[in-house]
UniProtKB/TrEMBL annotation:
It comes from Colocasia esculenta (Wild taro). It comes from the Eukaryota. Pfam families: LEA_2. This is Late embryogenesis abundant protein LEA-2 subgroup domain-containing protein. InterPro entries: Lea14-like_2 (IPR055301), LEA_2 (IPR004864). Residues 77-170 form the Late embryogenesis abundant protein LEA-2 subgroup domain.
Length: 198
C-alpha cells in the first residue's frame, strides 16, 4: 500500500513576508526608474543677459603720469533650475572681474534658493580697483587706445535634492569677455561661455 504524500500548506506569515518583500522591491525599482528619468538631476544654467556700464573714468594723473581707472559694471544674470527639485545655494556665489588675467574686482552673490523649474534674475555690481591695474603696463596703451578689455566670471555652487533622498552637488559658472569703450562709456563687445558641473 502506497503512503499518501501530504503537502504542507504555506504558512500565512510566509505569504505576508513574501508579499512585503515584493512590495518593497517594486517601490524601490519605481523610485530608481523615476530618479533616473523624470527626477534625473539636470544642469543648472547661468546666463548673463546683459553687461551694462554704469560709470567709467580713465586718464593720466600729473605729474607722476599714473593711470587712474575707475569703472562699474552691472551684470544682469539669470539662473535657471530645470530640475523637478529645488536648487539651494546656501553659501551664495562669487562674481569676479579680471583685466588681462589679473583679478581687479570682486563681489558676493547672496545665498538663495531656486524653485522647481524656475528662473530667477539678479544684478551684480562689479567695480574696477585701479590700484591693481597700475602694475600692468598694458593699461597705458589700453587707456590711450580708448578700449579696456575685461573678463567677468560668476560662479554659483549649490545642491539639488531629488525626492528628499538623493543630493547632487551642482556648480554653474559663466565667463564673459567684454570690451569697454572709454570715450563713449559703452560696451563694444561681449562674448560669454557657460559651464555646469554635476
Amino acid at each position: 500500500m502506497k503512503a499518501l504524500k501530504v503537502s504542507k500548506p504555506r504558512s500565512k506569515r510566509g505569504k505576508l513576508c513574501a508579499a512585503a518583500i515584493f512590495l518593497l522591491l517594486s517601490v524601490f525599482l519605481l523610485l530608481l526608474i523615476l530618479g533616473l528619468t523624470v527626477f534625473r538631476p539636470r544642469h543648472a544654467v547661468t546666463v548673463v543677459n546683459s553687461v551694462r556700464l554704469t560709470g567709467v573714468r580713465a586718464g593720466f594723473n600729473a605729474p607722476a603720469l599714473g593711470v587712474d581707472v575707475n569703472a562699474t559694471l552691472l551684470l544682469d544674470i539669470s539662473v535657471t533650475n530645470p530640475n523637478r527639485a529645488g536648487f539651494r545655494y546656501p553659501d551664495g556665489g562669487t562674481a569676479e572681474l579680471y583685466y588681462r588675467g589679473t583679478l581687479v574686482g570682486e563681489a558676493a552673490i547672496p545665498p538663495g534658493e531656486i524653485g522647481t523649474e524656475e528662473t530667477i534674475q539678479m544684478n551684480v555690481t562689479l567695480t574696477v580697483m585701479a590700484g591693481r591695474l597700475i602694475a600692468d603696463s598694458n593699461v597705458y596703451s589700453d587707456v590711450l587706445s580708448g578700449s579696456l578689455p575685461l573678463t567677468t566670471y560668476t560662479k554659483i555652487a549649490g545642491r539639488v535634492t531629488v525626492m528628499g533622498w538623493f543630493k547632487h552637488h551642482v556648480v554653474t559658472s559663466t565667463t564673459c569677455d567684454v570690451v569697454v569703450n572709454i570715450s563713449t562709456q559703452t560696451l563694444t563687445n561681449s562674448d560669454c561661455k557657460y559651464k555646469t558641473k554635476l
